[in-house]
Amino acid sequence: MWWQTKNSQIAFVTTLFLTVVAIHHTTAANLKVADTINSVCDEAASSISVSTTFLHKIDTATQQAKNLQKSALKWRLAAAADTNKDQAKAKLALALLLRQRAMRTQAAISAASGDLQAAAAVLQARAAALLTAHKLQPKAAPTKVSAANEDASNNFGTTGAKCTIQMTQTVAAGTCTLDKIADQSIGEEETPSPAKASIKATPDAYFIPQKLTVAALAAGTAGTNSNLNNADPATKDCYNGGSGRSDRTHALGADVTYTPTSSHTISAVAIGTAEDSKLNCGAQPDLEARSSGSLAAVKWAVCAGLTTKVDSEPDITAKTGSDLMQQADILPIAEQLLFSKDELGAIPSDQRTQKIKDKTQEVYGKGPNDFKTNYLEALTTKLSYNLGKQNVNEDINTIVKKTEAEVILSHFEGINYNQKQDKSTEKESSDKAPNKEETAKKSDKGDDKKDGDNKAATANCTSHSTQDACTKGQNCKWENNACKDSSILVTKKFALSVVSAAFVALLF
């Protein structure tokens, strides 16, 4: 039977070993910076540092969104100043690409800022609570500073006495160094994972006031106030008679002792639960929990803040048309701006994506320097414009830094608009201009009168001596017993209408 007992022992030891190994592998390790925390001051410093990184994520992404908007403005200016219609469209496509990236970055900020700001607020509240508690934490029993006797007959049913002892609380000395942990610079905390999802923290009991123990002492007839007319400078007792506590005749006093009633040991705590190889941080605590800086809120804050990302989009980094066509988000824009409706309609659906890529590469350049020469250098080419009464000659990179950048853009866009309007007017005029054959027909019919013909008509009118003959004449009118040419009045009205139109144009 001895071998059975031995086998049982081996089985027990093996099971115990495997259990220990399993526990070791299922317990997440501490995060890199959190693992260096060994004091309340360390945790306060870490809380401040980590909360700053949460807000820095928002600030960095916000700045990137602004940079993208500024880059979009650069390409809008380049497009507005370009007289080449096709290149202007291509530059406008780059502006739209950057504008969309700025909008997506802003959307990512909006989605993440709620948790990041809440997590930062939790850790800031935690740091404030830790530092306050650290300053108020008892180091030892209060120090008695004075004692005074007083009649207390009204407090009891018979003669009584009171000894009032004043004390000051003894608290931990020194302040925390908040830019270091264990005298070392604070590094950047790593992102938690199921394998690393623990921090070291102070228990909530640290914020609960510690208990003090008071022991009341009495000797002789301490209930008679007249027997307690002295105060011991050392023990702060009220007394009468004797040279010390050991031989007091009458005495009344109290001693206060302090012993920590709860553990303040910093220990490792899990900040999330592993689910499907991912870390679940749980729900955001309510406002009261977040404001208190409790350990439960801290665990959520560290987990959520470190795992929440703000996906900011990049600026255009392409150096060639080939690089640009590989960026998926420009293809829908290129499809709309670089193709005509007829061109798109002629492309088979299964070839559309590749054709758009090919067109993108063609427009922005296949050569190693085409994109730089035809597009990037446009940002450093100087533009001439009027700003108030001052004529300015600056490149686009300089213009976008000005507060008037949008106004300057409007200037160039206005020039383009006016040029388009002029071309449209010219086309309409050419479409309406009569051809030679029509002009000849009008001349034959007498519809198109020359200046000489008008003068002849005037002369003919004055030759009529009677009203009847005058009214039958062309463009003649009987007035003040004379026959006159009525076409002069029409000409005056026409001239007046032209002047009126010009005046209205000046007003607007």
Q: State the shape.
A: elongated
Would you tell me the structural class of the helices and strands? alpha+beta
- Which whole number gives the mean pLDDT? 83
Q: In angstroms, what separates the terminal alpha carbons?
A: 115 Å
User: Low-confidence spans: pLDDT under 50, at least 5 residues?
Assistant: 12-26, 445-458, 487-508
Total of DSSP H or I helical runs spanning 4+ residues: 16
Strand order of the largest sheet: 7-10-9-8
- What is the helix content? 40-55%
Main sheet characteristics = 4 strands, antiparallel
Number of strands: 17
Rg on CA atoms, Å: 47 Å
The number of distinct structural domains comes to 5
Strand content: 15-25%
Structural description of this entry:
The structure is a single chain. By secondary structure, the chain is of the alpha+beta class. It has five domains: 20-136, no CATH class; 143-285, no CATH class; 321-378, no CATH class; 380-432, no CATH class; 445-507, no CATH class. Helices cover 50% and strands 16% of the residues. The chain has 16 helices and 17 strands. The chain has helices spanning 2-26, 40-81, 85-136, 287-292, 295-307, 321-325, 331-337, 341-345, 352-364, 370-374, 396-399, 405-432, 436-445, 451-462, 467-472, 487-507, and strands at residues 29-30, 143-151, 161-168, 180-181, 184-185, 196-201, 212-219, 230-231, 238-240, 250-258, 267-270, 273-275, 278-280, 382-387, 390-395, 476-479, 482-485. The strands form seven sheets. The chain has a four-stranded antiparallel sheet with strand order 7-10-9-8, with no helix packed on it. Strands 1-6-11 form a three-stranded mixed sheet, with helices on one face. The protein is elongated and about 155 Å long. It starts with a helix and ends with a helix. Residues 12-26, 445-458 and 487-508 have low confidence and may be disordered. Pfam families: Trypan_glycop_C (PF10659). Residues 426-507 form the Trypanosome variant surface glycoprotein C-terminal domain. VSG forms a coat on the surface of the parasite. The trypanosome evades the immune response of the host by expressing a series of antigenically distinct VSGs from an estimated 1000 VSG genes. Residues 419-472 are annotated as: Disordered. This is Variant surface glycoprotein 1125.215.
